[in-house]
Design a protein that fits this description.
mainly alpha; 275 residues
Length: 275
């Protein structure tokens, strides 16, 4: 194994380890926390860290540790779902356009180009608060605005793959188009889709946090890292803990998925990884 590949492996492993630690904290932390995320302590407003409240309390008397873990769980779940949904949508639309060609290709790529020219963040900020359904609708809107670039890459690779001998043989034998795509096209795109999904987790987390920070994302009584950062920034100079813990978890989550995505991308592209 070359030095470049060792670095790639270490980078991907570091991202995976950090992501695993974050999920462990988010899932196991509430089990040992002295307080629940939705509980209010009316005897402790804006208190510092203590045995009863490990990272202190907010100005409304809620436990910072439990509340931030709840927000981190929300942001991570949004990131994972949006990444999986947008990558899956890109795979289906890109493969269908590239394999079918003709009018189907033109219509699907025209739709992708139309969405590409729209300011995705502003569209999500306008649509999400006005649609009933809360968090599921927010995730659906984000996923619907993140698939276009990958779909174009999938389409280009599918156009090349459909001319290969094993694909042509399957078509001549009368195998249906969905089965040909599923068995002979998509497996060759697995590396592209895996890298895209891992990187999209970070993009989705940042997008959701940005929308929630501005008041267009997660709605009360639920919280996300974006809402907690927005609530904590006003008093960060005097009471740092509500802001710092949420901001730190957001940075670590994005760093973890970016390390994992970069490591996977370089592993699937040895020429790039060896630079």
């Amino acid at each position: 194994m070359t030095g470049g590949h060792i670095w790639v492996s270490r980078r991907a492993a570091a991202g995976l380890l950090l992501l695993a630690l974050l999920f462990s904290l988010v899932l196991l932390g509430p089990l040992v926390s002295p307080s629940g995320w939705d509980e209010t302590d009316f005897t402790a407003f804006h208190e510092g860290p203590s045995a009863r409240h490990w990272l202190g309390t907010t100005q409304s008397g809620r436990d910072v540790f439990a509340l931030t873990l709840r927000g981190a769980r929300t942001s991570l779940l949004v990131g994972l779902f949006v990444a999986a949904a947008s990558t899956g949508l890109a795979a289906v639309i890109g493969a269908a356009a590239g394999y079918a060609g003709g009018r189907v290709d033109r219509v699907l790529m025209w739709g992708a180009d139309l969405l590409l020219v729209l300011p995705s963040f502003l569209v999500a900020a306008v649509l999400a608060p006005r649609m009933p359904g809360g968090l599921p609708v927010l995730m659906a809107v984000l996923a619907a605005l993140m698939w276009m670039v990958t779909a174009r890459a999938v389409r280009a690779m599918t156009v090349s793959l459909r001319r290969r001998e094993h694909v042509l043989a399957a078509r001549y034998l009368g195998v249906g188009a969905p089965r040909v795509v599923a068995r002979h096209v998509l497996p060759h795109l697995a590396s592209l889709l895996a890298v895209d999904a891992s990187l999209n987790v970070g993009v989705a987390i940042v997008a959701e946090s940005g929308l929630s920070y501005l008041g267009f994302g997660v709605r009360p009584p639920d919280v996300s890292l974006g809402t907690l950062i927005a609530e904590g920034q006003g008093t960060a100079a005097a009471h740092l803990w509500p802001f710092a813990f949420a901001a730190g978890l957001l940075v670590l989550a994005v760093l973890a998925v970016n390390l994992l995505g970069d490591g996977l991308r370089d592993a699937f592209d040895p020429a790039r990884g060896g630079r």
